[in-house]
Amino acid sequence: MKHKRNTVIQLIILILLGGAVIVTMLLPQLPSHRDAAPLVEISVILREADSSLWLNARLGMEQAAGELGAELRVLTLAQANDGADQLAVLRREIGQQSNALVVVPADPPELSRALAEQEAVCPIVSMESPLEGASLTVSPDNAALGGALAEAVLARDAAGFILLLNASPDSTGVAARVDGARAVLERAGAPVRERTVSLTASSDALRDLLKQPDLSAVMAFEPALTEQAAALKQSLGLDVPLYGVGVSANAAAWLEQGVISAAGAWSDFAAGYLAVEGAVNLARGDSYHTEPLPFFIVRGEELYEPEYQKLLFPVG
């Protein structure tokens, strides 16, 4: 009798184990697994010809894409700030049925007009500049950033005028930084001159601007121009204080050496992550909202403090 009872127990255990194996085999076919979120294709369209300035942002984008199930295509322009070229790339990506776009607009007003005329537009996330027609903007408060950088300039007791340089006059984000800086400087009674320069033309015009007499400080309002001005200042052996925006690997070295006096910065990694996270959510029909990115003004002696290390070099 005891032997028979043991046999029955063993049979029940075998049946349960067999059932578990069958359930395991069928599990991938159950509705909850079939409904896994599909892969989202996202095109990232920069306004530069060189994507190296967006290295940390791309790392953030790639991490978000890996976590959320997205495939990225990062596209650059043949020439920096070429709005017509960027519009052509954007239309091509829409035609190829990208699920969402992340764009750093070269010419936001013109791009907005074109989007208003476009019949079918996927969700668009704009970085740096607000873009009419975009579902989301990922950027610091550009006017406040320019104002804070101007306060750093005013902290120095120097005679002469302050030169504001802009290499992207069509970018509303960069223009807002210039406007914010000018407003702070003019309220303080500081003499200001503004000049537009080109990132693609010869550096002769920029060199002449940096060598002007009675120049007390130079301000650049985007990473590419900050790097160009720093390289030129160093090669010419100039002493004029330079204030910029963005902390790339090159800019970090120039900050440490004192070539750049201070820079306005934010976490590029976080910006890239939030942009792709927003694009994926919007492509899947979910709502998404983000606040302006926090920014800070960093000097060479502060560059390697833990609070800045985490923000500027998140994977270092």
Characterise the protein shown here:
It is a single chain. The chain has 316 residues and is an alpha/beta fold. It has three domains: 7-34; 40-140 and 268-312, Response regulator (Rossmann fold), CATH 3.40.50.2300; 142-265, Response regulator (Rossmann fold). Helices cover 47% and strands 16% of the residues. The protein contains twelve helices and eleven strands. The protein has helices spanning 2-26, 31-34, 55-68, 83-95, 108-117, 142-154, 172-187, 204-210, 223-236, 249-257, 268-283, 306-312, and strands at residues 40-45, 70-75, 100-103, 124-127, 136-138, 161-166, 192-196, 215-220, 242-245, 262-265, 296-299. A six-stranded mixed beta sheet has the order 7-6-8-9-10-11, with helices on both faces. The chain has a five-stranded parallel beta sheet with strand order 2-1-3-4-5, sandwiched between helices. The longest helix has 25 residues, at 2-26.
- Round the Cα radius of gyration to an integer and report it: 26 Å
User: What is the assembly state of the chains in this entry?
Assistant: single chain
| Percentage of β-strand residues | 15-25%
- Termini separation comes to 70 Å
Blueprint of the fold:
Blueprint: H1 2-26, H2 31-34, E1 40-45, H3 55-68, E2 70-75, H4 83-95, E3 100-103, H5 108-117, E4 124-127, E5 136-138, H6 142-154, E6 161-166, H7 172-187, E7 192-196, H8 204-210, E8 215-220, H9 223-236, E9 242-245, H10 249-257, E10 262-265, H11 268-283, E11 296-299, H12 306-312
Parallel strand pairs: 1-2, 1-3, 3-4, 4-5, 6-7, 6-8, 8-9, 9-10
Antiparallel strand pairs: 10-11
